[in-house]
Design goal:
The chain is α+β, with helices and mostly antiparallel strands. It has helices at residues 8-20, 26-30, 57-72, 86-98, 103-109, 142-150, and strands spanning 42-46, 52-55, 78-81, 123-127, 156-158, 174-177. 34% of the residues lie in helices and 13% in strands.
Length: 187
């Protein structure tokens, strides 16, 4: 896991791995890349209840263009999750461990701290009016069909398809921004 000098972030990730009982070799064994937290995030969206979701400015622009294009075709996209820190990721794991799940079970559905695309401020979990929760059922929605056909134009990609190389469960709701928004994409 730690092949480079330990800076403060890497040291924190190492400490979390030890605390949570995550094998140090897990990221390399599953081909996971370290995901650093950005220096700057902006509020990309706020729910009617006042919950703020954060992304990098670049990812937020792409998200708004993607969401607007979908809306113009009658498709509603709901942001269900966006940026989360490595410490927040560790809190989620702690709660799951507290409910009796094993670390192996947890790490099939959740990235270890330091290795989640959500840390980058580029990943979004997406729901729709007819399927706001995160689950495989999202694959059956018009929103998923639209994303499958159109998200690439906005540089969003499905990170964890069925039988993905990282060993995660299929996540049709998890999309990650991976590039600059081109002029063509904003049309």
């Amino acid at each position: 896991m730690i092949a480079q000098p330990l800076d403060a972030y890497l040291q924190r990730i190492r400490e979390l791995f030890i605390e949570l009982g995550i094998p140090e070799e897990l990221p390399a064994g599953r081909g996971l890349a370290l995901c650093r937290e950005p220096l700057e995030l902006i509020v990309a969206e706020t729910t009617p209840q006042g919950r703020a979701y954060y992304l990098t400015a670049e990812a937020a622009v792409a998200w708004h263009a993607l969401k607007q294009a979908a809306a113009e075709e009658g498709i509603t996209l709901l942001m269900v999750s966006a940026f989360r820190s490595a410490d927040y990721q560790a809190d989620i794991i702690r709660r799951k461990l507290g409910k009796g799940q094993t670390i192996d079970e947890i790490l099939r559905v959740l990235a270890p701290p330091g290795y989640s695309e959500h840390h980058t401020g580029h990943a979004i979990d997406i729901g729709s009016d007819d399927c706001p929760e995160l689950g495989e059922r999202f694959e059956q929605t018009a929103a998923f069909q639209w994303l499958s056909s159109n998200a690439k134009r906005f540089q969003f990609f499905l990170s964890f398809p069925r039988d993905n190389r990282f060993g995660y469960v299929y996540e049709p709701w998890h999309w990650c921004y991976r590039g600059r928004l081109s002029a063509k994409s904003s049309l």
